[in-house]
From TrEMBL:
The keyword Transport does not apply. GO terms for cellular component: cytoplasm. GO terms for molecular function: pyrroline-5-carboxylate reductase activity. NCBIfam families: proC. It comes from Olivibacter domesticus (Pseudosphingobacterium domesticum). This is Pyrroline-5-carboxylate reductase.
């Protein structure tokens, strides 16, 4: 299988590597993980991954190079690997927020094949919602990256100009939904449940709601209609939330996150 180098073995990079291994996309020995300090990566070494603190050397023989560093670290990394990257023979996959395909090609060469991917932290349990996009990649390359990220969740192909929006909705969105679960559990405590029971109930209810939409392929409003009755308790609660700006606050939060995400990387 393809030799893969993942530059930046933080939460996203490591989760991707372990997902590829778990789903038999490739062997651990086919993956190189890089980090500035590899002394604390004994668990990864025990799994059979190759480790390196030399980014330039690590990309030399790779077919796919995954860039998984912080936006402010990217220029330094690109300078490091620019001498060993083979633009016509390697595929660059960037999971870095706010960085365009052209930003990367301007450092590595205009012939470089670049695809952007935006997973979220649910990648750690194989449940990421990953959006992928490119401006010039071939259908073959897009299919390969789709297959790569399908090992750790669901994948949607979008236009590159929507990648910042995908960051807000999917990557930042994890925190938004977690906060809503936390709020629901606090409400449960207010009405009489112990904290641990309220949290368990809120989590399972949220999971059930999401699975209901996925499995039934229905719209949220159609499922809401099934649990609201005239003068009932559900519609009373929903209307109270809306009167206090629930949907509006959620939408505004997503919009502001999208604005901030667009400014994370500066050339």
């Amino acid at each position: 299988m393809s030799k893969i180098t993942i530059i930046g073995s933080g939460n996203i990079g490591l989760s991707l590597a372990k997902g590829l291994l778990a789903k038999n996309y490739c062997q651990a020995s086919d993956i190189v993980l890089t980090r500035r300090n590899i002394k604390n990566m004994t668990a990864e070494a025990a799994l059979g991954f190759n480790l390196s603190d030399d980014n330039a050397q690590a990309v030399a023989s790779a077919e796919i190079v995954v860039l998984a560093v912080l936006p402010q670290q990217l220029n330094h990394v690109l300078d490091q690997i620019s001498t060993t990257v083979k633009p016509t023979n390697q595929l660059i996959v960037s999971v870095i927020s706010g960085v365009s395909c052209q930003d990367i090609r301007s450092k590595l060469g205009e012939e470089t094949a670049v695809i952007r991917a935006m997973p979220n932290t649910a990648i750690a349990i194989g449940q990421s919602m990953t959006c992928i996009a490119s401006d010039k990649a071939t259908d073959e390359h897009m299919a390969e990256v789709t297959r790569l990220f399908e090992t750790v969740g669901a994948v949607v192909t979008i236009n590159e100009d929507l990648m910042t929006s995908a960051t807000a909705l999917c990557a930042c969105g994890i925190a938004f939904f977690l906060r809503s679960i936390r709020a629901a559990s606090q409400g449960g405590v207010e009405i009489g449940f112990h904290a641990h029971d309220a949290l368990k109930m809120a989590i399972q209810t949220a999971k059930g709601a999401a699975d209901l939409l996925l499995q039934m392929q229905s719209h949220p409003e159609s499922e809401i209609d099934k649990v609201t009755s005239p003068k009932g308790c559900t519609i009373a609660g929903l209307n109270e939330m809306e009167h206090n700006g629930f949907s509006s606050a959620f939408i505004k939060g997503i919009k502001l996150s999208a604005e901030r995400a667009g400014g994370l990387y500066k050339n």
